[in-house]
């Protein structure tokens, strides 16, 4: 099995899919991650970008990721890039990897990068694409998915839960590698909040810990 996780920014893949990545990798799947954007001056320093990339690779090694791709579109400015350019880059990756399962950010996230990359991911994975994945899930990202305006924007209502009980600590360890992103509690991007969300999603389906997803498409 091949899995591709599309992350708008460094750490989104761990926040939303970290436990699932660890589980599938441990079960023998090939898991790939693409980080679509990077920080550019004056909003971000070159040093912070290099640190983000180093920390992403450390985090992904803990999770068992087979390969990480960096696309280098401008973070927080992806709305300035022609939509087609992002579509093409994601299509090329899907063609190269030919994943069975695709994980993408949720369209209702408050961050515009997440919304645009959701749309580009779906364009790249259209059913008439001979390399299109058979299954597509949208994942939730703390401080992005849950800070939108419910009933005005699409609301994240998960219908798939993946048991990550044996892999929660691995997910938290991987998140700790992102020293620029991990925050002290009560910040949403804290170890305590990640653990709480996993516990909540797990208890929803009578498990100790889980990650929740919205199934977009599945071809059987």
What does this structure look like?
With 220 residues, the chain is an alpha/beta fold. It has a single domain, classed as LmbE-like (Rossmann fold, 3-Layer(aba) Sandwich). 38% of the residues lie in helices and 21% in strands. The radius of gyration is 16 Å and the shape is globular.
Q: How is the CATH topology named?
A: Rossmann fold
> How many domains, in number, for the residues?
1
Please tell me how large the radius of gyration is: 16 Å
CATH architecture identity: 3-Layer(aba) Sandwich
Q: State the separation between the terminal residues, measured CA to CA.
A: 15 Å
Sum up the structure in keywords.
alpha/beta; 38% helix; 220 residues; globular; 7-stranded mixed sheet; Rossmann fold
Briefly characterize the structure.
The protein has helices at residues 12-26, 46-63, 83-97, 112-124, 168-176, 191-204, and strands at 2-7, 30-38, 67-74, 101-105, 135-139, 160-163, 210-218. It is α/β, with parallel strands linked by helices and 220 residues long.
Question: Any chance you could write out the topology, listing elements then pairs?
Answer:
Layout: E1 2-7, H1 12-26, E2 30-38, H2 46-63, E3 67-74, H3 83-97, E4 101-105, H4 112-124, E5 135-139, E6 160-163, H5 168-176, H6 191-204, E7 210-218
Parallel strand pairs: 1-2, 1-4, 2-3, 4-5
Antiparallel strand pairs: 5-7, 6-7
